């Protein structure tokens, strides 16, 4: 028993003396709880969604309805597409309103709108609802890619540093950027290949047919994975403590779990939530993949997402190479 207590005591001392690990163990759960409370603690959440195009004259009367969220769209085509796929319950334009007769929620919202603006002309648009699995699949695959990229690279490099592998590589002609590039490319190939297999199998099982170009989907998956691997390399570039590295990776991955549209859509969310989400690479990966699979978006339509992912990749790799330490 004496030996057992001695080992427990020594391990506790090791943990307490690692100030970074101790700090993350205390700070991370508090940060997570506060963040989740700020994002999701909303007792006045709207029940229905109405899309708005332009400034319809009847909008002021309609906005007196309670528990309804109004989402502004730039074009009538975009609003009609959202109504057709049951992504919003009804859309109001300057010419009238659009509703999908197959949408039960749309039928309820139409009656509410009609009670406030009976003179508004009705336009019907048809289309099937986006199935839940169809919407969820890109997010689940994106989440799996994120964990594989961040922990599969970042944690491994930290372990290499702790175990002395990097110290031995330092005496070889290998440069820091070559080492980082090797980690990036090897992991990138493995993650994209496994994600492609998972997507194809799931698409066959649930009869999901991407509306857009599958090759474009492959491009977004590659750029998204590269962005998240580069962030993992950035975290691991000068970190020796596995506990500290794990804390930072948790701090990066958990916001993406909740704010990158894996489980629910951020459409119509609070503006500050959307601003934070736009800084996360998984948000751009999921938005681009869903736009291709569900909306049939082309390269121009998702170009902004691809530019952000490319910028994150280049910026993170440059900083990681600059601050990389072999020991």
Automatic annotation (TrEMBL):
Chief localisation class: membrane
Keyword flag Nucleus: no
PROSITE patterns hit by this protein: ABC_TM2 (PS51012)
Protein name, UniProt field: Transport permease protein
Gene Ontology CC terms, in alphabetical order: plasma membrane
Gene Ontology molecular function: ABC-type transporter activity
Family, as annotated: Belongs to the ABC-2 integral membrane protein family.
Swiss-Prot/TrEMBL keywords: Cell membrane, Membrane, Transmembrane, Transmembrane helix, Transport
Species, as recorded: Ferrimonas lipolytica
Keyword presence, Ligase: no
Family matches, as Pfam families: ABC2_membrane
């Amino acid at each position: 028993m004496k030996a057992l207590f001695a080992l427990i005591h020594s391990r506790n001392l090791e943990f307490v003396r690692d100030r970074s690990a101790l700090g993350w163990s205390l700070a991370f759960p508090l940060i997570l709880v506060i963040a989740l409370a700020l994002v999701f603690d909303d007792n006045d959440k709207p029940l229905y969604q109405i899309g708005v195009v332009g400034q319809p004259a009847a909008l002021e009367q309609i906005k007196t309805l309670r528990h309804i969220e109004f989402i502004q769209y730039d074009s009538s085509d975009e609003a009609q597409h959202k109504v057709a796929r049951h992504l919003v319950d009804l859309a109001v334009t300057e010419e009238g309103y659009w509703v999908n007769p197959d949408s039960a929620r749309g039928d309820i919202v139409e009656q509410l709108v009609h009670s406030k603006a009976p003179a508004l002309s009705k336009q019907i648009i048809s289309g099937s609802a986006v199935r839940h699995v169809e919407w969820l699949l890109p997010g689940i695959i994106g989440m799996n890619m994120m964990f594989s990229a961040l922990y599969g690279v970042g944690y491994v490099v930290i372990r290499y540093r702790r175990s002395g592998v990097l110290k031995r590589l330092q005496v070889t002609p290998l440069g820091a950027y070559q080492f980082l590039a090797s980690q990036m490319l090897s992991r990138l190939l493995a993650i994209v290949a496994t994600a492609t297999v998972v997507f194809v199998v799931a698409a066959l099982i649930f009869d999901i047919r991407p509306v857009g170009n599958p090759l474009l989907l492959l491009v977004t998956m590659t750029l998204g994975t590269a962005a998240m691997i580069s962030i993992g390399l950035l975290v691991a570039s000068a970190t020796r403590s596995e506990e500290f590295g794990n804390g930072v990776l948790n701090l990066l991955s958990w916001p993406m779990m909740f704010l990158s549209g894996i489980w629910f859509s951020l459409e119509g969310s609070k503006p500050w939530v959307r601003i934070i989400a736009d800084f996360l690479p998984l948000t751009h990966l999921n938005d681009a993949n869903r736009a291709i699979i569900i909306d049939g978006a082309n390269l121009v339509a998702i170009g902004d997402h691809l530019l952000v992912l490319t910028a994150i990749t280049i910026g993170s790799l440059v900083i990681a190479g600059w601050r990389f330490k072999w020991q």
